[in-house]
Amino acid sequence: MKLSTKSRYGVRALFDMAYHAGTLPVQIKDISRRQKISPRYLEQIFQDLKKAGLLKSRRGPQGGYFLSRKPEEITAKEIILAAEGDMNLVPCTKQDGDCTTCCDFENVCVTQRLWDEATRKLHEYFEAITLKDLCDKGKEMGLEKELDHRFMYFI
Questions:
Q1: Residue 107 and residue 27: Cα distance in Å, rounded?
Q2: Mean pLDDT of 88-111
């Protein structure tokens, strides 16, 4: 399975938001700069993430995008599904119970069970990883947190 840049960048961007701002609003230009992702592409990705209910936005000078829930409540699986649409390894697997794209070998294919099990384990793995877990890993790796200049005061 190969994840598209849409889901990989989506996970990176939401990690960036959780790590640097928590649930506070973040501007696309800041995420873009830190993650080296085109702001235009981030806007497209964020539309899918907003539709999935993972992000909200606020207009104005103190506005931007912010997480709709706490980082410990958002899983990598949710982000990937919002960006990709599905995470099935092959089209003939039936993770959702519906098999509209099943092949002619339904119930006689030995490898179909292999793909079903692999897809199930992949879903379980990404379901077990939250943005908080990624933030903890970032701290463990020593990633420097950037302070938001909107909240800095000079005397």
A1: 50
A2: 67
Q: In 3D, which of 2, 6, 154, 1 has the Cα closest to residue 80? A: 6
Neighbouring C-beta atoms of residue 118, cutoff 10 Å = 15
Chain-centre distance of CA 88, in angstroms? 16
Identity of the amino acid at 113: R
Closest among 84, 85, 86 to 94, alpha carbons compared: 86
What tokens appear for 135 in the block? 């933030």
CA distance 36 to 32: 5
Residue range 73-88, pLDDT digits in tens:
999 999 999 999 888 8
CA pair distance 25, 2, nearest whole angstrom = 31
Q: Look at the block and give the residue holding tokens 């119970």.
A: 97
- For β-strands 55-58 and 64-67, DSSP reports them as antiparallel
* Cβ atoms of 80 and 125 closer than 8 Å: no
